[in-house]
Design goal:
N-(1-d-carboxylethyl)-l-norvaline Dehydrogenase, domain 2, 17 helices, alpha/beta, elongated, Rossmann fold, 6-stranded parallel sheet, 441 residues, 8-stranded mixed sheet
């Protein structure tokens, strides 16, 4: 079976490599010439555990190919995946111009049946726009070529995307013809043999499922952060509360860890897009608007704690920052809480020296010389007035208390992920702030 995937970003590259891993002939297409040339050399545009080895392995076995020409990559192809970006417009709605460009180019070049699958996260109704754009191009050619459209949203976690694709909780596909269903079932057969279910549904429901899933997870995060903030006020311990509610199987233990708010490429964008979709139907998504508001506020919580500690005078203070990516096991800094904290610190007159095991190069692209960068986590602490822990990278979870005390001027630590024990921190002479626990009582 041959497939083509348009877009070599996070979704497209992981999808292409994993399909190639199970023996499918895959061509990944992108208009970025430099990116394609780098991929042919094994240089990836993203950092994702296990992905670089998988790409190299399948290129060597001639199952994974890269091209800048979609027209040249359609011969003998049964399925075309659109995995291009859908950046938010100024009003929060998803911009579909790249998705529709792919559909039009497919329509201009196919001569045999293809299943056009949208892998990008798109709002309800996109499949019909894709169908229309593709058909219009066929009509202009006077070509009588059959095709189907489908929606196959991705549910990949950055930092564990390869494992998620190869061992998925579920594979959601929306399609509306028997031929499309049979094609999808053949394509995903290597995964269903291991018991991973393909959930077939109508196209509109598949499009909605992606937004609903991410919005539900975002809601859990914002709810827990709201509870954490209340815990501090009333004197409760959010860690105990989290364990208490997480033991209820209806709630579960995942996504109920308090922190500095969600970021990344999915949750912020998808929550905004679903709110905008509802607005288009004159429906008010009251819960999601509150989720978004809580999250925006939460990104400032560590700055607010630090600012209060220094009596609202941070001018001239030097702050160490551990963690730049929005979560561990990725270099993605899109919508990262670290960016909000850094901006507020600089506006208050403080300087920042940051460390991250993976995201330093990405940070340099985004922030340039607005901050300084430490190659070692302890180097960031030298002469710092405080340490702020933003991302819960494993290497931050163990502290050499003596070394930290020698480097950090005020023994002041603000823990945005509750990775340290408050009692132990106090016993070792640290002034310690975290989320959801008033450690200064």
């Amino acid at each position: 079976m041959k497939i083509t995937i348009v877009g070599t970003g996070y979704v497209g590259l992981v999808t292409g490599a994993c399909f190639a891993e199970v023996g499918i002939d895959v061509t990944c297409v992108d208009i970025d010439v430099k990116k394609i040339e780098n991929l042919k050399k094994g240089i990836l545009p993203i950092w994702e555990p296990g992905l670089d080895d998988m790409v190299l392995r399948n290129v060597e076995k001639n199952r994974l190919h890269f091209s800048t020409s979609l027209a040249d990559s359609l011969e003998g192809v049964e399925v075309v995946f659109g995995a291009v970006g859908t950046p938010p417009d100024e009003d929060g709605s998803a911009d579909l111009k790249y998705v529709l460009q792919v559909a039009r180019e497919v329509g201009r070049n196919i001569n045999d049946y293809v299943l056009m699958v949208t892998k990008s996260t798109v709002p309800v109704g996109t499949a019909e726009k894709v169908r229309k754009a593709l058909q219009e191009e066929l009509d202009l050619r006077g070509a009588m070529v059959k095709f189907d459209v489908a929606s196959n949203p991705e549910f990949l976690k950055e930092g564990d995307a390869v494992n998620d694709f190869l061992k998925p909780d579920r594979i959601v596909v929306g399609c509306d013809t028997d031929r499309a269903r049979r094609t999808i079932e053949r394509l995903y057969k290597p995964f269903t043999l291991n018991g991973h279910p393909v959930i077939l549904m109508d196209i509109v429901s598949a499009e909605m499922t992606k937004y609903a899933a991410n919005s539900m997870l975002a809601t859990k995060i914002s709810f827990m952060n709201d509870i954490a903030n209340l815990c501090e006020i009333v004197g409760a311990d959010v860690n105990a509360v989290r364990k208490g509610i997480g033991s209820d199987s209806r709630i579960g233990k995942k996504f109920i860890y308090p922190g500095t708010g969600y970021g990344g490429s999915c949750f912020p964008k998808d929550v905004k897009a679903l709110i905008k979709t509802a607005d288009g139907y004159s429906y008010n998504m009251r819960v999601l608007k509150a989720v978004e508001e809580v999250n925006d506020t939460q990104k400032s919580i560590l700055f607010n704690k630090l600012n209060k500690h220094f009596n609202h005078d941070l001018k001239g203070k030097h702050i160490a920052l551990w963690g730049l990516s929005f979560k561990p096991q990725t270099d993605d800094m899109r919508e990262a809480p670290s960016l909000v904290i850094i901006r507020k610190l600089r506006e208050a007159g403080a300087t920042v020296k940051a460390h991250d095991p993976v995201a330093m190069n990405e940070a340099k692209h985004i922030l340039g010389d607005k901050i300084t960068y430490a190659e070692d986590k302890y180097d960031a602490l030298l002469e710092a007035d405080a340490l702020i822990v933003v991302t819960e990278w494993p290497e931050y979870k163990f502290l050499n208390f003596h070394q930290v005390s020698q480097l950090l001027k005020n023994n002041l630590i603000l823990d945005g992920r509750n990775i340290y024990d408050a009692k132990e921190m106090k016993e070792n002479g640290f002034i310690y702030y975290c989320i959801g626990l008033d450690t200064q009582r």
